[in-house]
Fold each of these.
Amino acid sequence: MGILVIGLNHRTAPVVVRERLAFAEARVPAALQTLRETGVADEAVILSTCNRVEIYVASRLPPELAFGDLEEFLHRCHDYHDPLTDHLYRYTEPQSVEHLFRVACGLDSMVLGETEILGQLKQAYELARQRGFTGPRLNRAFQRAFHVAKQVRTRTQIQRGSTSVAAVAVELAERLFSSLRDRTVLVIGAGDTSEKVARALVSRGVTRVWVTNRTLERAEALAGALGGRAIRFEEWSEAFPQVDIVISSTSSPTYLLDRPRLERWMRQRPRRPLLLVDIAVPRDIDPAVNELDDVYLYNVDDLQGIADDYLRQRQAEVARCEAIIREKVRALLDPPPHPAAPGDPAPSHAR
Amino acid sequence: MNPWTNRHLFALAVVAYGLATIYSVFLWRRGFRRHDWANYALLAAGFVAHTWALLERGLSLQHCPVRNLYEATAFVGWSLMVAYLVLGLWPRMRFVGVAVAPLQLALGVFALMPALDVPTGPVLQANRVMESMHAVLALLAYGAFGLGAAAAGLYLLQAHDLKVHKLRAVLALLPSIERLEWVARRLVQVGWGLLTVALLLGSQLTPPEGARLAGDAKVVWSVVLWAGYAGLLVWHWRGLSSRRFAWGVVGVFGFVLLTFWGTNLLSPLHHP
């Protein structure tokens, strides 16, 4: 009885197809029950995320038959009538196990090395296991997948670093400040990227967020969403000396912050570092301010450059991760023979 | 007869510090991306031999071994190590060891120069405890200043990398620059406090026949040092930027390293 996997992901199917075939969590148990009752699978796990829908089964059926039945199951379950052949991938052992390990390690994710998928995989496995839809083969494979993901995380750099501008900004803040908890963030301009950066900072402990925008209503809306407060655009400069992190993203054609102005403000906040994140194009902040002591200015290119460097690092780690995965797949599917215990009968060829 | 004299033990400590220095270069080249428990362990091993050397010396002399340049240098290094090993209990602070290791190696190699370990004259019984306290506190102060300089050096390295947007600044497992500045400032404050008490005790000592406190090279040097660190702390409190404060801490300790021994030699009180 081999492990098979059939599925589609962000590389093989557009979102319009993925969303039609996604399983809501509440429907998964019934779907697993159907798989068992139709005799397709003795053991099954369904993984359904925004970027992939996959069904892992241990089946007694020949693979060609099993895959046909599973594809039919997907059509019937979602009342989907368009052909799926071009979107689906199908793996038998050992590729199915290798695929599982790659998914667990984030090697198959849209963002290489992301860790969220491991949690999603664990959740999908637990759901199936608690309802009795897994058995010895899938239990071993999935538990080994989680172990492999942990090993890959500790032995390689595949999950190090941040690959989004917002996450890089947070990492920079953590390099400057010993704690983000008592920091004040000023968001100038209520744009999407500045909102993402502010949210990322809030998720890491920032509790004071001030938002200013030429349109007060937009500032109030974003401040409300972030749990902060809005400041009139004419008044933000008065509040500046209390600020530790500035995220600026306006459509101003001229610099909002220049060196002479910032020099005066820095005298009101001595010895405290200041992080300036300028996401605007054209820039809101004069690059010359970076020459001031205790001021650290990053524009969108700087942040994206760091994110790209991280991604290159992760890509350089893929070969190492794949080597670890291949070794673990071999160990799982072709384990070395156990040494004989004392008292065991001698092997027949030795007599 | 025990073949291991205190100098042999101290030399063993210096070897460990040397190995830690080599490993520190490796950590630095790798951008501080590996946890440096190995470096901490090497420095701790050196500290064990170092402590044993000082204990053996002190027991054989029947007083605190701080009376000639070899002993004083070894003691400064020992106090620096005590401060570092405590600080290094916090994982990210262990990286200060990459600055401590070469400093310890330099101090150790200097201390082992034969001309420094000369026998010293007897100590007046009345002065013995106070003199030892004066010397110990002063040398502990220098140890604190040294570790403060190491933290300040690491601050300057990290702050520079952040300024010029080096990826290493983000990847490194170093503490935040705010934390490094805080550590440097606290160590300088502690060192200044210890030096203050040391100087006060020293002012109460009876100088030997023919020597005077006022005008003594080492005394003048110590007062200048005390004033220098005081000025740095006040200036920083009044608004001196963290980067300039860090340079000040490194610079003043550099002054200590370059002039301590020469000043000692010029001082009849400290080099009779």
Amino acid sequence: MINFIKIRFILTAILFIYLLLPPIVSAGDRVLTDVKVIHASTTGAEQFDPGLKGIIHELKSVFKYTSYRLLKDQRFDLNFSQEGLVNLPGNRTLLLLPSDTDGKRIRYQINIQKNNLSIFQTQVMLKNNSSITIGGPELDSGVLLINISSALQ
Amino acid sequence: MEKECDLCTSEDISRFIDGELSSEQCRSFEHHFSLCPDCSHRIDRYISLSFAFSCHADQKTMENHEAAVMGHKLEQAVLNSEKKSAGTISGLFGKNIYLKLASILAVLMIGLFPFDEDLLQGPSGPSAIVNSLDTEYASVMIIETQIEKHTIIWFLEET
Amino acid sequence: MIVTRLETNADTIKEQDLVQRLKKRQKWAFNHLVSKYQQRLFKLAYGITLDREDSLEVVQDVFISVYKNIQTFRQDSSLDTWLRKITIHQCLNWKRKWKRRFKWNHKSLEQEYDFQLPEENTNDPEILFWEKQLENNLMKAIRTLPDKTRLVFVLNAIEGLSYEEIAEVLSIKKGTVSSRLHLARKSLMDSLELNEEKRISYGKRM
């Protein structure tokens, strides 16, 4: 009898601890990923697309470019281990793969290809509701900037 | 500022030091320099400038570990170059994604204001932490903006 | 004289042999090239960039470039000259690539004025004072020289090249080498002596 109570107590304690643990990623968790493809250059008047309002200040604090045009804004609702693909100008491709999260940051594999050959790849821990910018393949007297932001669902 | 001599210019002195004057000019200047303290002084200064700079550069040798790291990176670059010319594509993210490291120049803080270390110690950290990089090209920079700590990765694509 | 000529020929043959083997992509030839030239090219790159980290990257880029482009080396100049040209090009290109895009001035990770002259046995106060001045201000002054001027000064001071050799490497006239080198020396000397005057005037006021 005492052993039975002990076992029930231990099982209850384990269940209680499990419920208190931080959420573990399950196969169903998703991440909303937004990719902005930007053309930055010094030709033309000083201007930026309204869609870049959230990041333009950071970009301008770093770069000398005067013109920032939003070429593409693509959104993905991805499961973990599901790949997102963005076609970029100049026969380039961006591949994104969120793999897991600790609740605060999301691990992404990011690969940029040109003519189907990998030219750049990185693994980053991207803060939830934050973004990273990768640049800068050359394009038309300017460069491509790729801003990737994420939000856990 | 030192005044220039009436008989020769500072460029004459510069050329004299480098042995770029004719033997006749050399003979004539040598006699003058033995009598003119200004020119003699200028010769000493010019020579010591080159000597001092050369000594400073001499001390900036590559360390053994730096040479070893460079040797490893060159090996990888040579392998990649051979792979490329052989036309093989080793998978979506490359065979040795974590092994090849492009050179990362530095993590530089960008701002309009002088670098302030206190600002870096914020609790939120950078927008992205870079775990690994893999690229064909040596020129990669990782930048974090000063206020928002926005992470930027910059690579120079080979033309 | 004969011995000298023979040695020169031997060096040329050795270099030709090395180049041929590099063109055949023989790995040991590439390793030999790297171990023979890495310190020299690093010193040259440092003289131009004045930055240790940049110089390491430049030297690496130079060897990668040599590996990729050795087939285009026609041996109309020596291997030394070719490597020098590539190094200079990489140094200037490196700066240009970053300066064009970014707003800040790259601050070197190393201490800028970690400068020590070799020890000399002298108690002459004027010489000691002058050396100290050099120690404090020379590198600062060198950074202010325009790239083209500093380049000529570096090739002369670090590589010990003659005007003709510098002209060949940079594809400029000998007269231009002379005037730029003179300008570099004069600017540096004026800059150092201006600091000396300031120091003296400050000392008088104290």
Amino acid sequence: MFDNFPLWPQRASTMAGNVDALYIFLLIVSGMMILLIFTAVIFFSARFRHRRGVPAEQIEGSTPLELIWSVIPFVVFMVIFLWGAIVYFKGRTPPRDATEVYVVAKQWMWKLEHAEGQREINELHVPVDRDVKLIMTSQDVIHSFFVPAFRMKQDVLPGRYTVAWFRATKPGSYHLFCTQYCGTQHSGMIGNVIVMEPAQYEAWMSGGVTGPLSATGEKIFAELGCATCHRSDSQGRGPNLQGVFGRPVDLADGRTVTADENYLRECILDPGAKRVKGFQPIMPTFQGLVSEEQVNALVAYVKSLSPAGKSGAAPGPAVAVPVRAAGRAVSKGSQVQ
Amino acid sequence: MAIENPQPERVNYLNKEYGIGSWLLTTDHKRIALLYLISITFFFFIGGFFALLIRLELLTPTGDLVQADTYNKLFTMHGQVMVFFFLIPSIPAVLGNFLVPMMIGAKDLAFPRINLLSWYIYVIGGVMMLHCMATGGVDTGWTFYTPFSTAFSNTKVIEAGLAIFVAGFSSILTGLNFIVTIHRMRAPGMTWTRLPLFIWAHYATSIIQILGTPVIAITLVLVVAERALHLGIFDPKLGGDPLLFQHLFWFYSHPAVYIMILPSMGVVTEIIACFSRKRIFGYSFVALSSIAIAVFGFLVWAHHMFVAGISVYAALVFSLLSYAVAVPSAVKVFNWTATLYKGSIHYDAPMLYAFGFLGLFTIGGLTGLFLAALGVNMHVHDTYFVIAHFHYIMVGGAVMGYLGGMHFWWPKISGKLYPEGWARLAALIVFIGFNLTFFPQFILGYVGMPRRYYQYPPEFQVLNVLSTAGATILGVGYLLPMIYFLWSMRYGQPAPDNPWNAAGLEWKTASPPPTFNFDEEPVVTWEAYNYDELDAPHKEEVPVAG
Amino acid sequence: MPDSSLIHGEVQNPALLHHFAEPQQQRDAASLGMWIFLGTEVMFFGGLFCAYLIYRLKYFGDFAAASQTLNAALGAANTVVLICSSLTVVLAVWAAQHARRTMLLGSLVLTIILGFAFLGIKADEYQEKFELHHVPGASFQFQKSIPGHPDQMANPQHAQIYFALYFIMTGLHAVHMIVGIGIFIWLLYSAWRGRFTPDYYTPMEIGGLYWHFVDIIWIYLFPLLYLIDLHK
């Protein structure tokens, strides 16, 4: 809208339209409600203002009226709830085959690493019209990755991965804010998401790269001696990691879990917690011996050993849900520009 | 204006004994209410001062008034002082303490000495908080999220946590006192369905106080222990879970917002009934709504955590329940509005505050629907939208109700009338100033300005400037009552026993009341809000004050 | 203060406070007040139990290992001590109700002694924990295998969480015990001064309620903290 006086954020992602549609619906419902109440109050207080000789009429109540104005709002609320739930579900379920970017938040900057290996600080370059999945963790306190133009927000926690996704629809540069208070420079922990046309993005990508993240991970895997136990011929003292990502794993304590990013991370930092059935508890912990970026690289490497991991199709960490097929999302009210 | 005092002054709770000892060692619930009034007003102005500094800083996009660390302390202490040392006690400890025994026909609360103890506990907590603020302050945000508060902040987290821990016991004891009083001390004939809705509201509030406050107490104990002893209960580096803190914290802090709003709803009910001259529409529904809000309020805490990393399914449950808790509040708004229908409406200052409440609470409550909608919450969580929402409820709602109640019962409390013209002006200034301060913040939030930011992108400046302008006006609106209430204590017209011809046992005794409230124990044979009897044609209409 | 309840010339119990109409009302109010207070205490401990429950489920093996370093025999002894003390409290309240002075004083003394016995045993346990470096903090050390899995060592960080919760929960309980002993010393003094009669023994009753509550908290703490996987 106005440049110096924005009344509405830009819409630059597929989710933005969905969120805006619900918001506008809420504005309309609220507007109607405000109109109703304000009109009634103003009208009644004028029409029934105190006049000498005209007493108030004592009305006990009206059960039918109470039921009406409990049930109707409740029904409206349920509509809002369902609509909101659908939008939320979609916003929290990354599509299959999304491009992955690993994010490490720290006081007070954003460190990003593309799966292809580019590293960025406080900036994220992405191509337009491509699903991008962010796999995020924090080195210290809780932060929150917020891009208003994408209507996307996800808290970034220390000690685990949280996941967010978006599909940018409009080239441009959009604010990135940290929106979970994290200390002195919380309001300085800002940056930009730069959405580029595919050709420009390719050009940017090819400038100065260290190699894909999974290759870095493979190097670390060798340097730390992981290969000694985790052999691909299944003769090792540790489980074979080929094809493990994205599949169910039977644990020694009887549970079965899905090997997602959080599971892989936990195995590196706290191997005893979810030991695989049939293996001895001899894996040492690497807590304190690897940085968050190195953990990301190792996770990316193990993922690359799976067909599922090659395009990041595992379910989001918090939920075991079937993932939507890739492709352009066309949903109620979305405005792809 | 000289005080006209043709009769010798009656003995009442104010003039019965003089001397600081008689106040500091009193067990009279009315005097204790005034002790609380002084203390919470003091903290209100401290919290307000921090707010002023915050809004001044936010006039410009760059951080130029204060440093980042100072700003972080300002918003933290603004929140802590306003929530724990002003809003939570406000109406219950002042108006509730004063009125609950009188409204039910009792001589005092069930436990007068515990009542005094609760004030001292509050004061001790307050002194600890002041000391903490004076010696460096705390910068964790009023929400104390871990691991920042336990392992990263360099400020006086332990002291602030302990101060709030102590103050929490004041709240618990007040709630305990009210519940026992309402159950056991009602005068003969005062059945549950004859109780004023102010009492129902305080009963519901007290339930939340006794069940919820201990949880934040133990949470603060854990935070203090973790910070002091480097434990790992909430620190992932030591095996702990930062989300556990959030669950424990919000388990209290969500019901806490109902502690802040329910009493105000009770006040508004009394005012609307009186100044419409009729019984509240749907008495039992309003009473039950208060209880429903108290119960449901305990089931929705994780709606503060939709993007915190909880599972999608948990989020669905909490969103659904949040809509459930919205229904009773909506029901109340409809009942208040319906009460106006075929009433006989007066526009005295208390009623203006009640109107203000209706408008602002409606807006605030509706924006709660926005926040409970998962799809919208993803975008507006932790932005100025949330700040606008809760200020509409807590300031536009709770504080308006508090001010309305102070005006309504001021003649009873002080025996003096406040100046009506100034009071109406103040109500108007507060309403205008409030809307100008907080409405732009809804827009700011949706365009994406995060909370707790002291510097921001330049395009957000215009909205911030509007907000600060409003805050200045709001500040004037709050200063005015301070001034004229004080003025009225010396120069105000003496108040009759019942200047509003209002229903309720408290109006059947002198203004100010005698120490034991009633010369003779009342026996109640009438329903609440018997305005038809009070306004019956054969009675000479008592002129309304002002 | 003039007492309006004397206006009509009734004789009243000196213990009746001015704002109550009759002793029954005062008794009911005191009783209800204490029950509500105990409700707040349940919520207070509840937060701790909740944290404990969550971590115990998450780190079961480590918690079992840590738990087994506690002396279950001493814990059981403490349980017996507290149950006996609840018995002496019941006897004391009965004695007050039936004006049996010797029994009243004796039961109160026994209660206090048992309370101190509990604290003494607790102090001994804490001492042992201190010596074993199981107190969370800079000098914490923990080397033990998970019960039932002799080849797997427990995670010391998770064990430290166990001990943190152990100390906070039992410590908070001990604080409540100390307050309880204080209350009972005051009750003993009042009883000795002859303050309690069959018509008025409310402080005994509500003091007793408090003591029983502290006992019940321990009855939950003991199995939760001391008896994890003892058979392994």
Amino acid sequence: MNKLGYYSFDRNKILNVLLWIVSLVFLIRLFQMQIINHKMYDEKSAENSIKAIEQIPFRGVFYDRNLNLLVDNVPAYTLRITPAGYDTNLNKILDAVLGFEEGSVSNILRKNRIYSKYVPIRIKRGVDFKVISWYEENSNFLPGVDYIVEMQRAYPFGVMGSHLFGYSKEISAKQYKLEKDYYRPGDYVGHNGIEKSYETELRGKKGFKYVLVDSKRKEIGRYKDGQMDKESIKGKDLVLSIDGFAQKTAEEELKGKRGAVVAIEPSTGEILTLVSSPDYDLNQFSYVTTKEFLNKIYNDPANPLFNRATMSLKPPGSTFKILCAIVALDMGLIDKNTTIHCGGGFTFGRFFKCHGSHGAVDVLRAIEKSCNTFFYQLIYKIGLNNLKKYAMEFGFSKKTGIDIGEEAAGLITDESYYERIYGKNWPRSILASLGIGQGEISVTPLQLAFFTALVANNGKSFTPHVVKGYLDNNTNTIIKYNFDEVKTSVKKEVFDIVKKGMFLVVNGNGTATHIRSKDYNIAGKTGTAQNPHGKDHALFIGFAPYENPKIAIAVVIENVGFGGTHAAPIAKKVIDSYLTKGKFVYSGKDVFSYNLGERIEN
Amino acid sequence: MKELRIDYNLKDKLDLYVFIPVVSLILLGLISIYSATYANTLAQSNFEKQLYFVLAAILIFLIVHFLPTNTFKFISIPSYIFSILLLILVLIIGKKVSGSKSWIGFGIFSFQPSEFAKIATILMLSNFLSRNNTQINSFRDILFALAIGFTPVFLILLEPDMGSSLVYMFLILVLLFKKGISLFWLIVVISPAMTAISAIFGLTTFIVTLIFLLGVLFYLNKDLFLNSSVLALNLAAGFFADYVFNLLSPHQQARILSFLDPFSDPLGTGYNSIQSMVAVGSGGLFGKGFMNGNQTQLQYIPEQWTDFIFCSISEEFGFIGSTLVIILFLVLLIRILKNSSQTKDEFLSLTQVGIFSVLFIHFFINVGMVIGLVPIIGVPLPFVSYGGSSLITNVIMISIVTNIYRTRKNYA
């Protein structure tokens, strides 16, 4: 105790030591913070004040095969709310201004509560300009509210393409979880159709603008004068294989009907037309989707959202006789001259009738006249397993692998299928109707079109696809995507016979002579799928020109009756608009030069 | 001849070890205030205002520096009484700024009485302690000294201004210590504060502290009655502290608690602490450069031109800059202590130690809180932080030191 001393001099020394200790501790601490841990603090500091603002690139547009612009981007206003600075008393005002039902804004805000309150929430897309000018005048009284200009889809060519193009919508929480590294909440992603399957090509690459923000996250300048900014990269502009004219024609022809049209270029597998009807207005999805629209579309018994072209399963009816003829010829069960007597029907356990009494028919006449008796008998020669084997070679009973959306596989039965149901002694009488494409057999319009394309091109084509490639804006060339080749084992002579038969259907005494054209020769086959629930489905498959097929087509119209009457004329109109109306500029080369400037002038 | 020559030497008339660090700190302060307020439209005028404060401070320095040295003892009692009156007045007519009623305004001009009262309290306490008949280890005189010191503390706590109260308490303690208080009495004086703090941390810490304290007291002094009284005093202090803590405004409570773990609530109460540490740490060796500190320029730290000015210096001038500040304070404070040791007049010696203690505790709390060693307690960094009352008070204290140095031969 005495050591502390009673002398002021000693006590000053103690204060001196205290001062030194404090100063040294401070210096050590500063050394630790500013030299040793400098990096850690520096990163924190940068995180603090540098905000990366995403630059969403323009989404790629769609051209048709003749480089007509089918799907474009147009600017639209989107009103947003950042909850952190927002006063919920404004909900009512915004509801009124935006023409919402009362409580809509608060609903949207509640739904988005899971995200940070500093992330702006899109309240309405495609906001009217009047609303924006109202906002501009009153923005001082609307804290936390702002608007941005976003790009939205427009369809300048007048093609609906509902099931083909598809639409984008705000990313779902589920998908966001899977792809957190690219997307942010509120981003738009392709939801179906081409928009979905080519999402990664179309979306481009987000850029980032780095800005300095203050402690209230308010932007106050560029970071390093923008040297660190990353430019966004525009999405790829897709060149579709679709022919805008043919597509438009098909859409118009299908108006008011339920059904589908699929047309394919036989030599390439390129889809020229893909229409499902009824369809719906993509703009309604692209802009803000109203409740009424959703209610209407979900409650429509015709189910407009359903893509009939790739999803609807119907028996192929008589169009299937083409496959049976191919199988029998290729297996050598019959030849060109083999005749079968048609006495108006066929008895196997019970009587299967034909729609006429055709006498002695060979394969050409059987196709031309669509003689059931001929094919009833043929199927017993072929056998179910062989039929299935060939059917799969031609793309039935499996997915075609088309590059958009969902697709149904369809069903072609084989013996084991019936054995599973009926046991070893399954009734062989089932076979008869399968020979004419009725009964337990189902195909999609796409499969039918692809089958027709394979026949037209003598058993060779490529996996059907709607996108050819993309337009390289630097070189003005089309870079093509690659698709797998599809090849059947069937001999060319077989195709010659079958195609001749199909030629006769239209140009002989067949079932579709009314669609004969003087400009080019169409070959085809009508079909009528029996429908136990109502009127029969009308089908038609065909290709043209007969000598050098450029288009293969399948038309399926539901519940209208005979195929020759209802489906064939539509096929003809689509073929017609493809072969004559559309200016056929595609040179056929994989890569070709194209002057973008010309397009703008046009 | 030799004597005369020294008389004409500037070094002999003006204590450059005090003067140069102070001028450097004021200049550094001006630079940093300019930078810290540059981006803030509301505070941009503060640099200009600080320039006027500096001009006023120069004037006051010239006056106080050349006053007869015995003036200080002479004015100690009236200035103390005047200060107490002002501290009462501020509670009645004061302006509330960020939760504390600590400003008195006269038209456009306003000041903090608690700043000027520091000088009066130093003078008054030094005056009392340097009386010939003061018995520093007597209960009566200690109580008297504490009464002088704690009257302003009590009034300032009512404002409430926690930071300034702490400054006064440290001042009282250092002066008692300097005067030669025994270890026993020192502990008696400190103990209520210790128990008060421990009470905030909960009952267990409170009891442990009490037992420990009792042990130390009995080791130093066997007087049972005295020790029991001290224990009673401590018990009272503990309960009083707990009571006062609950009376504290939530932001002050939060500040004290958030010091325990600033990262527990990074956007709330720990925010200032984290942001100031990030500012300091990100400065690195050479700093980000004048006007280039993003933490400073982007207003991450509220009112950084006042209590957090050290952040700006550390961020923009790095380890070099912050070390310079520490060294300037070290030189200044060592010099004041040394001067005090060499002053034979006890009043003047005590006054200088008092000045040392006020500057030192500001320095300790301010820099300590910026670098995360001390809880966030609002006290300015002397000479550097923006603020007229603080600058002028500190300059008056410095001019008292240089005044004593100027006339040191009269007291040698």
